[in-house]
Design a protein that fits this description.
The chain is mainly β. Helix content is 6%, strand content 41%. Strands 23, 26, 27, 30, 31, 33 and 36 form a seven-stranded mixed beta sheet that branches. A hairpin with a 4-residue loop joins strand 30 (314-321) and strand 31. The radius of gyration is 59 Å and the shape is flat. It starts with a helix and ends in a 22-residue tail after the last helix.
């Protein structure tokens, strides 16, 4: 019985499924073969009309007539087939039946989903009849055109086509093959419509006859016309205005789109008229000339259109004018295009009550009407959009949109389907009327069915009732979807009685039932709400009466019992009906009176409000108003409520598309009574107006009127310009709008035309237009005097207006003149000229024609340049150098070109070579290329070749070529070849060769390509793609590396692949080799994502890896679940749990649990979701054994089963845990959940242990109710062993979970291994505490002032080399490690420096090549110091001049030499060259003399005695050159001088206590202590201007004359071609030993040691060094010293230090410094022996020592630690922390270092005595390094050299001595005069023992 009860619901579900599936496949009919609009056939052939449609179910196709009558078979005439074919049989003429053979048919297709009908099919049967064509004679005036027409009978006119014409001589004139126009340039022309057009008729044409040939399109029969046509030609007797044949006006032509056609204008007159065609703009009387082109042509008066377009439709005007008069003909052209339509959407499914919309889109022309049909029936809608507000069941079906015109129709089909089910509600059980006693309880029942399920509501006397007090409404579901509703009434009262109603409703319909429930008692009438009704409608109201029995129910109004007229009816049940309700009589208060049989009465009132639709009081009518008057139009209506009045105006000229009047127009207002007021009405206000009255009751009341504005004539355009070409006719048209009649008059320059022009050169014609009038003024042939102002005046009774037309007669411009040559070169000439008269038309271009002088003007060698007419200067380009050209100019405007101007002859200048070298051959060399070539051809040299540039670069590189220069004097004797070396291996290079001469270089040769030796690929394979084939195979493909990166021949490819999850673990990566660009990878893991990367290898090795491609293998069936448990839960249930398969091989879709009772054959199964890994089997037998196993499913199917377990339900269940031991890996700070699903009876207790210790919950860790352990935000310390213990009285169980926390790695350690000038090698050391395997490192690095960059480093690469960092520059480096969790924290920043130093200067004899007027600098002789040279700066000046001249400030090192030009012969010059690279710059100065005019050398330079600019030789007395006077005088002076010298040496030795001083210009053999010492001007050093100071009187002040220059090895050179004698004294070993008591140390290896050897004092930066014991003056130091203290302005160098013997000093030369700064440079001079040093330091006395803040432009010491700065050495600040600022200037602040740090900063110099040390405490140590770019705090590692020197100078000088060994008092006397003048502006110094005084000089 139970099984049977389940069958019926299942069967019902199957049926519903079947019908639902069937419904989804239903489709309404749609035509797949629709018959055409028109079918003509011959009675001798018959025809077949086919119609086919598709749909589901297949539609039935039938035929109906146009009136809807069905079409049946007619024996022998018509057959209708079931497949939709309609056949018309051949018939005899006498069997013709009009209702069959001339009928409109339609094809009808319908099925259960709807019906569709086809478009109208006009069927016409043509009975074969004889016909003949004829040609009538045509009368024509000689000189005009004539048109012969082929006349055809009307019954065959549309079936017969004219194909050609034949004249009496047999000549045939055809139409073109495509139906177009043939021979439209000849005399005879066959028009598309078949007429023969004859131009320029002569009397001879009247002697010819013409016949037409036709063809019948149904029968194919061709015939000649029965009659011949002739032209009747008449000779003109006198002039006559053109005449147009009657009936030509207003003709209408039809053309098919894309077909040819012609519009005729058949006017004749003498002289022969001129025809002009105009087309009216749509919707206006404005017209414009027809634009003639290849598609539209005019032949005489006929307008021929080759391919008609829909845009050609419209009204045309043909004007026919001659000198006598004119006529015009209007023609209407309609171009028809096939109709088509479509509906969007073509099908839609809409739920009940939802809106639906179809949009009909149509094409074609014309469209006369549009209408819609539904299921083959018109629905009365003619708009393109069909909208349905709320879809009901009846709206389902087929919808069609039809568009029609007079010739054809077209339709489109769409289907509307209903969503869901549509079964309207039906009441299957209702209640009956009853009478009840008060106080009892009752219930009413209604049951309904429907789909969708209806809802039942209850009403009492039309008032909805819900559950309240004693009324309760309940609903329930019955069988088969029935809805049952009860209305329960408890203790019913008399007043509860009434008309009870139940209503079942759904979105698809409603059903209701009502009956009276009467309760005994006194009558009672319930209150009634106010009721509104529209006038004219019917009022129905039932009185809500309660009580029983009721004898009568009556209605009263105004104390009168109803009814009182025929419109009122009162029924015994209390229903009142009033038809055609009127406001005056029916609005009011109605009373319902109920009486019982015992005489009791009850009553209640009903208020009735009658609403009245609007109706006219004053209906507006058409109005006329004068222009600018106030227009008032009344529009009044009444109704209830009071209607709202609104006015609208039509947007166009038709009474449609009305739009509300804008509120922004202040001239228009609508009064409250509906009156429209227009202030100052204008013509724009004219049109159709709509007045509407609406009160939301009934339809809107409206009226349309037309408002006419009576206006004077008005011209829309008051002034315009019109142009005409000289000699052409011109027509001036003016159109005036206004009220008729309008009169138009013309004047020319203010005078009437008739008075000014007595001869009829002008023709004036006036005609009416829509809305005004038009007048044409025609000029037959314009001349220059017709350029004038023409005024057109229009007048009517209301006023007048005028417009002005400026007629501009245009002609060709005159000839350009005054041609001048402004400039010329070898390739271009610049010309100018004066613009000529432009002929009243702007010159839009000039044409410059030019040719070689030997060529002709009309030859093909003549060329031209076109420029805009606004330009009067032109550059003629692309000329040949040294060539004679002739040029002339032509001006051109819209009319045409002028005559050519006069000819100008020009010869171009010479230029560089025009051709490249030829026969360039490049041959490979080892790491280089051998290039050979031949010179360019002789005609392209353009001068003598001085050399060649040979350039090379990598192929396909965007970089520019690197050039080498090869110069020679004689082209013929030079071997043209060169070797290029130091290139990359197996790289293809491009080589070009370029010749140059004195004017410059010529073009490059074609690029020649050649490879060097094979190397390793530098780029990976490209476009790596992969495609999955199976669950264990993938096909990978790629393209080879770029051709420029192979560096050899690709031998093959290595494909590395591995799972993406372990891609960073190299042990999981496999490798496959392939010689092609694809490979098949097999044996892969199933459903696993793989990373695939490819590298190419050559004979040189493996190239880099490509980017990874990622593919996933296909799914497969899963493996068996890894483990399974079955645990008894109770006596009838077992819990099964399992682990997912180790290899799911896809996405697990579900698990299937199988269990089988012992002894059973068929197992039971249960499927669970993939997220569920346990299942409870219930309803089992207590003592029965059960076997369980589990299968996993993927989309590929079910996998193998798990192990089978057997268990028996039991009532006493020991504690067991269904979860499995597991290792859980969780990412850092994620949540984790450790499961512990336990069973047992009684319920076991759960306890957790961590690492063997009881677990205590906390804020992050808590035990969930089901026993699992929840950990929020896992930390590194949470990893460990977690155990869950379940225990009850029958046993216990334990499960363990190992928690592995994956956290980002700790910061790695970055260690420096080493560096070079272009690389830095670092070691990356990971943190030993990292527990998660690393994937790799990210290395971050930046150069000083650069941006941060990153590079990925593999995890195995513990060291990494940064390639190509900036040379000689500081860098910052740090690293981060990353693993599967993400990147870790960054390491500490490593600061280091790349190696490299500033460039090294070359010797003068290698660097300079001197000539008489120039010097050549060989730039390639400079050494780059390990960093490539970036650029050179070259300056020069005459000897003794102060200002330098810059020859170049951006010389690139690719130029091997540079010429300094424009020098004076036999003149001494200073040359300063500065080389810059990334490590700094080096400045070198050279002294040289140019050769004289004959190439000879000059003598050495003379030392300048004074500061003035006069030559000392010129100031000598005249007697001095006399030898008789000169020789005795010189001898006497010499004896005196020797005596004075002996005395001075003796006195000087005593005054200095044995301290030996040397002359200012003594020279020492000291090579530089630091070869890379520099002033890095790249970092922002800017030297201050050099200020001159007067020499101190009586002093031996010197600056080591600037002739002292540095040479290789430190040698000094005064360089000149004459090699003069040395001008300076030399310090010999004997002198040194006599002074110090010990000989000097030998110089370094390679430095000469002879007495004649002398050495430079120029530093590596080109700055002059300070020689030991040299006295100098710091220029400008007076102004720039610190204003807060007294500072010495002079210094003297210390003696050389023994520990630094033989090293050249590198401190800068005398230099003016910025205010409050000192540019310091470490210097290690050679000090005197210890005993003399002590003697010089014997003076005591402390004093105030000024320590100014200084700016150090750059670090330049080799000893600087490029890793990082450290504090070490013999003092608190042995080396200060060194950083570079962003400005490139390092600043040092604070006091001088203390004595403890003296040795570290000043070499081996002893510390100062304690008397010179202050008690000031040491400053705090500098802050640690912040950033390489920190510009606020920056320290210098080295102590300033000048700082060391100054302090020692203070100790070396005794108080009593000043500069040069003079006593201080004597020195001060020499300075008194200067001191007095400076005291006013300088702070006063404090003179103390050992201190400095202002403007003194000291030894440094």
């Amino acid at each position: 019985m139970g099984q049977t009860s389940l069958e019926w619901p299942l069967l019902g579900l199957l049926c519903l499924f079947f019908f639902a599936a069937a419904d989804t496949g239903l489709q309404g009919p749609v035509f797949v073969l629709e018959p055409p609009n028109k079918i003509d056939f011959s009675n001798s052939t018959g025809t077949v009309v086919e119609c086919a449609a598709r749909g589901s179910p297949p539609p039935r196709v039938t035929w109906v007539r146009g009136d809807g009558q069905p079409v049946d078979d007619v024996t022998g005439l018509r057959q209708v087939f079931s497949n939709g074919t309609l056949r018309f049989l051949a018939f005899r003429a006498e069997d013709y039946r009009q209702e069959i053979h001339a009928q409109v048919y339609r094809c009808l297709a319908n099925n259960s989903e709807g019906s569709v009908v086809s478009r109208d099919v006009h069927v016409r049967a043509v009975v074969a009849q004889q016909y003949s064509a004829s040609v009538n004679p045509v009368y024509v005036v000689a000189g005009n055109a004539a048109v012969l027409r082929c006349e055809l009978p009307s019954h065959v006119a549309d079936l017969v086509t004219v194909t050609s014409w034949v004249d009496g001589d047999g000549a045939v004139f055809f139409r073109s093959a495509g139906g177009g126009v043939s021979g439209d340039d000849g005399k005879y022309l066959v028009l598309p419509s078949g007429e023969l057009h004859i131009r320029d008729v002569t009397p001879e044409d009247g002697l010819k006859s013409f016949r037409c040939r036709t063809v019948h399109r149904l029968t194919g029969e061709t015939r000649l016309s029965a009659t011949e046509g002739r032209l009747v030609v008449s000779e003109p007797v006198s002039s006559g205005a053109p005449r147009v044949p009657a009936g030509a006006q207003g003709a209408t032509f039809y053309l098919r789109a894309a077909a040819p056609g012609a519009l005729h204008c058949r006017g004749q007159g003498y002289p022969a008229p001129v025809f002009r065609w105009f087309k009216f703009e749509e919707g206006s009387s404005r017209r414009r000339p027809v634009q003639l082109d290849d598609r539209v042509r005019q032949v005489a008066g006929t307008l021929i259109i080759r391919e008609a377009r829909v845009q050609d439709s419209g009204k045309y005007l043909c004007q026919v004018n001659n000198t006598v008069g004119g006529e015009s003909v209007e023609t209407v052209l309609t171009v028809t295009a096939p109709l088509s339509s479509s509906i969007t959407p073509p099908s839609q499914v809409v739920d009940f009550g939802k809106p639906a919309q179809f949009t009909c889109t149509y094409k074609g022309n014309p469209v006369k009407a549009l209408y819609w049909m539904k299921d083959g029936v018109k629905i009365g809608h003619d708009e393109p959009t069909l909208s349905i507000r709320a879809v009901t069941k009846s709206d389902k079906g087929m919808y069609q949109c039809f568009v029609i015109n007079d010739q054809e129709s077209a339709q489109a089909t769409a289907e509307l389907r209903l969503g869901g089910k549509f079964d309207p509600p039906a009441l299957v059980e209702t209640f009956e009327a009853r009478q009840l006693e008060p106080g009892i309880s009752t219930h009413l029942k209604c049951a309904a069915t429907g789909d969708p399920t209806p809802e039942i509501t209850w009403f009492i006397d039309d008032t909805e009732t819900t559950s309240r007090d004693r009324f309760q409404v309940s609903h329930s579901r019955g069988p088969a979807g029935t809805v049952v509703s009860f209305l329960n009434v408890t203790s019913i009262l008399t007043n509860d009685g009434g008309l009870f109603k139940c209503r079942a409703a759904s979105k698809v319909g409603a059903a209701e039932h009502q009956a009276r429930i009467d309760v005994r008692g006194l009558p009672h009438v319930k209150p009634m709400k106010k009721m509104s009704v529209v006038a004219g409608e019917t009022l129905i109201k039932t009185c809500p009466v309660a009580g029983y029995p009721i004898d009568t129910i009556t209605w009263e109004m105004n104390a009168r019992v109803l009814p009182r007229d025929a419109r009122q009816k009162v029924f015994p049940n209390g229903t009142l009906i009033i038809t055609n309700v009127q406001r005056q009589s029916d609005q009011g208060t109605y009373t319902c009176v109920a009486r019982s049989t015992h005489g009791y009465m009850a009553r209640a009132n009903l208020e009735v409000l009658v609403m009245v639709p609007p109706r006219w009081i004053i209906e507006p009518t058409d109005k006329e108003f004068a222009l600018s008057s106030t227009a008032e139009i009344q529009c009044k209506a009444d109704g209830f409520p009071k209607p709202r009045m609104a006015w609208k105006k039509a947007a166009g000229s038709r009474p449609e598309d009305y739009r509300a009047l804008g509120h922004s127009d202040s001239s228009i207002q609508v009064r409250d009574d509906g009156t429209l007021v227009i202030n100052s009405i204008q013509k724009r206000d004219e049109g159709y107006y709509l007045c509407e009255a609406d009160n939301q009751i009934g339809p809107t009341l409206s009226a349309v009127i037309y408002v006419n504005v009576q206006a004077p004539p008005h011209f829309e355009i008051k002034l315009r310009n019109q142009t005409a070409r000289l000699g052409d006719p011109a027509v001036l048209v003016c159109e005036a709008r206004g009220e008729q009649p309008i009169t138009i008059k013309w004047s020319r320059n203010g005078a009437p035309l008739s008075a000014r022009e007595p001869s009829p050169r002008y023709t004036i014609r006036q005609q009416k237009t829509e809305g005004g009038a038009s007048s044409d003024l025609s000029l037959q042939e314009t001349s220059r005097r017709d350029s004038a102002t023409y005024t057109c005046v229009a007048s009517n009774p209301f006023g007048q207006d005028n417009t002005t037309i400026n007629l501009i007669v245009q002609e060709k411009p005159e000839v350009p003149f005054a041609i001048k040559v402004l400039n010329k070169s070898g390739r271009s000439v610049e010309l100018s000229w004066s613009a000529p008269y432009n002929g009243n038309s702007d010159i839009f271009q000039y044409i410059i024609q030019y040719k070689k002088a030997k060529d002709e003007w009309d030859s093909k060698e003549m060329e031209r340049v076109v420029i805009p007419g606004k330009m009067e200067i032109v550059s003629v380009m692309d000329l040949r150098p040294a060539t004679a050209y002739q040029m002339r100019i032509i001006a051109e405007n819209e009319v045409g070109p002028s005559e050519p101007s006069e000819v100008v002859t020009i010869v171009t200048s010479e230029e560089p070579p025009a051709g490249p070298p030829t026969a360039v051959v490049v041959e490979p060399l080892e790491r280089g290329l051998l290039v050979t070539w031949k010179p360019p051809s002789d005609e392209l040299l353009n001068g003598e070749v001085l050399g060649y540039y040979v350039g090379h670069r990598l192929s396909n590189s965007k970089n520019s070529f690197s050039f080498q220069t090869f110069e020679f004097a004689n082209e013929a004797t030079r071997k043209h070849q060169v070797s290029i070396t130091k290139l990359e291996e197996f790289r293809e290079y491009e080589v070009v060769v370029q010749a140059f001469n004195s004017q410059g270089s010529g073009p490059q040769s074609e690029e020649q390509r050649q490879f060097t030796a094979e190397g390793v690929p530098s780029a990976p394979p490209q476009e790596i793609t992969c495609r999955t084939l199976t669950s264990d195979s993938i096909r990978a493909s790629w393209t080879p590396p770029p051709a420029g990166a192979t560096n050899g021949v690709i031998r093959g490819y290595k494909v590395m692949y591995g799972p993406s999850s372990t891609w960073y673990d190299d042990s999981t990566i496999d490798m496959a080799k392939s010689t092609s660009t694809e490979t098949l990878l097999t044996g892969l893991k199933k459903y696993t994502e793989y990373n695939i990367t490819v590298l190419a290898y050559t004979g040189g090795g493996d190239g880099p890896r490509s980017r990874s491609a990622i593919c996933r293998t296909e799914e497969d069936v899963p493996e068996a679940p890894a483990a399974i448990k079955a645990l008894a839960m109770s006596s009838d249930s077992i819990l099964v749990s399992w682990r997912q398969p180790e290899n799911p091989n896809g996405i697990i879709k579900r698990y299937t649990v199988y269990f089988m009772e012992e002894g059973s054959r068929e197992p039971q199964m249960h499927r669970v979701t993939p997220f569920q890994q346990s299942y409870r089997a219930s309803g089992l037998k207590k003592t029965q054994n059960y076997q369980f196993w589990v299968n996993a499913d993927t989309s590929m199917g079910e996998g193998p089963p798990s192990n089978k377990v057997t268990v028996t339900p039991r009532s006493q269940v020991p504690a067991r845990i269904a979860s499995f031991d597991d290792e859980l890996t969780v990412n850092f700070q994620q949540d984790a959940k450790l499961p512990c699903l336990a069973v047992g009876l009684p319920q076991p207790t759960i306890a957790w242990h961590r690492d063997g210790k009881p677990f205590q919950p906390n804020d992050r860790m808590r035990i969930m109710p089901e026993g699992s352990l929840q950990i929020r935000g896992v930390q590194r310390g949470d990893r460990g062993e977690y155990s869950c213990i379940a225990k009850n009285q029958f046993g216990q169980d334990t499960v363990s979970h190992k928690l592995v926390v994956q956290a980002p790695p700790y910061p790695p350690e970055v260690l420096l291994i080493g560096s070079s000038n272009n690389s830095i090698e670092v070691r990356l050391k990971p943190d030993p505490n990292d527990s998660v395997p690393l994937f790799g490192f990210t290395l971050h690095y930046k150069a000083a002032f650069g941006e941060w960059e990153t590079v990925q480093v593999p995890k195995k690469a513990r060291s990494f080399t940064l390639e190509s960092p900036w040379c000689g520059t500081k860098h910052q480096i740090y690293a981060t490690a990353f693993n599967g969790v993400g990147p870790g924290e960054q390491s500490a920043v490593l600061t280091t420096r790349t190696k490299g130093q500033a460039p090294t200067m070359p010797p003068a004899d290698r660097f300079l090549r001197i000539q008489a007027k120039s010097v050549e600098l060989h730039l390639n002789t400079w050494k780059n110091g390990g960093c490539p040279i970036l650029y050179f700066v070259v300056e020069y000046r005459k000897r003794f001049e102060t200002e330098w001249t810059t020859a170049s400030n951006a010389l690139t090192p690719d130029k091997s030499s540079f010429m300094v030009m424009d020098l004076e012969p036999a003149t001494w010059y200073d040359l300063r060259a500065t080389a810059h690279n990334n490590a700094g710059s080096t400045q070198a100065e050279y002294l040289f003399a140019t050769l004289d005019e004959e190439g000879g050398t000059v003598g050495p330079p003379l030392v300048r005695p004074g500061a003035d600019g006069d030559d000392w030789w010129d100031q000598l007395p005249a007697w001095l050159p006399d030898l008789n006077v000169l020789v005795p005088t010189a001898c006497g002076l010499l004896v005196l001088l020797v005596g004075l010298c002996v005395l001075c040496v003796y006195l000087g030795s005593r005054n200095r206590n044995g301290a030996q001083r040397f002359k200012d210009d003594a020279q020492y053999t000291q090579p530089p202590p630091h070869q890379n010492r520099l002033y890095n001007e790249e970092l922002g050093y800017i030297a201050p201007p050099n200020r001159k100071l007067p020499p101190i009187p009586g002093s031996t002040y010197s600056t080591l004359g600037s002739q002292v220059k540095r040479m290789p090895g430190g040698a000094l050179s005064v360089y000149g071609p004459a090699n003069p004698r040395h001008q300076y004294e030399e310090l010999t070993q004997q002198q040194y030993q006599a002074t110090y008591g010990a000989p000097p140390r030998p110089p370094p290896h390679g430095v000469p040691t002879s007495p004649s050897t002398y050495y430079s004092v120029v530093g590596p930066n080109g700055e002059e060094e300070i020689a030991p014991y040299a006295t100098f003056h710091l220029l400008g130091f007076r102004e720039e010293m610190d204003p807060s203290g007294e500072t010495p302005a002079g210094c003297q160098t210390m003696a050389p230090r023994p520990g630094q013997h033989g090293r050249q000093m590198s401190a800068p030369a005398v230099r003016t410094l910025p205010r409050n700064t000192r540019y310091s440079q470490p210097v290690n001079p050679l000090p005197p022996p210890a005993h003399q040093a002590r003697a010089s330091l014997g003076g005591g006395g402390g004093g105030s020592v000024f320590s100014p803040t200084y700016d150090d432009p750059a670090r330049s010491d080799d000893e600087a630690n490029y890793n990082s700065s450290q504090y070490s050495g013999g003092g608190p600040y042995a080396a200060l922390d060194d950083s570079s600022s962003r400005t490139g200037t390092a600043r040092r602040n604070g006091p001088e270092p203390a004595a403890a740090g003296w040795a570290a900063d000043c070499g081996s110099l002893p510390p100062p005595p304690p008397s010179l040390l202050t008690d000031e405490p040491l400053p705090p140590p500098p802050p640690p390094r912040a950033s390489l770019d920190d510009s606020n705090t920056s320290q210098q590692t080295d102590t300033s050299a000048m700082e060391c020197d100054r302090d020692q100078a203070l100790l070396a000088d005794s108080p009593q001595f000043g500069k040069d060994g003079r006593p201080a008092d004597e020195t001060r006397k020499l300075l008194d005069s200067d001191k007095e003048s400076n005291e006013a502006r300088r702070p006063h110094g404090t003179t103390q023992n050992g201190a400095l005084v202002p403007y003194d000089t000291v030894n440094v």
